[in-house]
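Action item from last week, closing it out:
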Amino acid sequence: MRVVFEGQYPLSTTDFTPYMEDLKRINPDVLFLCSYINDSIGLVKAINAVGLSPRLVGGAMIGPQNGVVKAELGSLLNGFVNYDYWLPVRSLMNTQIQSLIATYQSRAAQASADPLGYYVAPLAYAQLQVLEQAIRAVGSTDDAALSDYTRKATFETVVGNVTFGEGGGWAQPRVLTVQFQNIESNNISEFKKPNTQAVVYPPETASGSVIYPYAKARR
């Protein structure tokens, strides 16, 4: 792809409208965004406000994975493509993780935590399961021994069986590419529906297809 614009903004930026107006004049086919939580909120609102309509928009945005952010933006997220780690789609569900999410959500409000918990809770719990199983198998907390065992073992976790590759990363990729679709309101219950966050990649996990171009997914 030919890069037609690459820009940065000060971290103190709160109004992203001028940036989006500039991009609207350029009219890019693909808009790839790398942003933190408050920036992501501002960018999504500005894109919708100025009517910027690339064929694909999203990227590496931190924030839209969080339930509070989802509820604030609601249908403004429709069409955005972003990453996530776990979502309640059929291919990722099992009885263990259903129980974990139900327990998490029942306690989240009292703890002022993310009301959904999809982004962090499943993999954080799985990480602790890996550590627990490695310590039990090795019989110590020695870093070298745990590392050696972890490279070779398979771990049973709430996100399924986990193994690691030569470099220490997941043997099976687990980062999801997700498109927001069919969101009708700002109610947090919208994001408990499997059809509002379609996993479009990897293929073995996919729960839907990309709605393309972006304009077709906007409501």
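Closing note: DSSP finds seven helices and seven strands in the chain.
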